[in-house]
Specification:
Elements lengths: L5 H10 L6 H9 L20 E4 L2 E3 L2 H11 L6 E5 L5 H10 L4 E5 L3 H12 L6 E4 L7 H4 L2 E6 L8 H4 L2 E11 L3 E8 L2 E8 L16
Parallel strand pairs: 3-4, 3-6, 4-5, 6-7
Antiparallel strand pairs: 1-2, 7-8, 8-9
Amino acid sequence: MFFSSNQQLVDFLERKGFIRSLQVKEAFLVVDRKKFVPEKFQEFVYYDQPIFIASGQTISQPATVAIMLELLGTQPGDKVLDIGAGSGWVSCLLSHLIGEAGKVYAYELNKKVGAFGKEVISNSNFENINYVVDDASRYWSNKGPFDRIYAGAAFEKIPLGLISQLKEGGILVAPTQQNDLRKITKIQNKFQERIYSGFAFVPFIDSENGSLS
């Protein structure tokens, strides 16, 4: 569905129940999707659908991002890992949600997409984002553990090494190539998983093996 302004898009997402919390609504209003879409695709910026960025990669559908952020339940001061950061839109949404006391570690493997995302973020006012153009799997064990983990690309199977980077009470939200979203919560050193069907994402790619299972 198409809208002519960010406010109209946010109102639609709230009306349909994709945005449920005031925190996520405020983040969507502050972090306008328009800034994260290449000029040649600007006419589609307020469509509730994915938009191509470069190299076959897209900026995710707003409704899907809203659902994932609601599931993630970030808190002020959280330390967050953002995998497959793309144009940086979700990184900035996360940055707003966790505030100045928090930190976002964002990674994008595709160099062309990463160059675009890095430039966009460098021109933003979100100073608590560390955006790196490289393979996220090379860093998460060194930068962890994390309060929250968000992935914008689908794993064949979510790696145990990634899940182990959750702090106690931490939450991971990530898609898989089974066309679903997984929410994994660490409670008393055990992992609880919930599955939400009906979500399609581009596959997660690592720099060494082509894909990560």
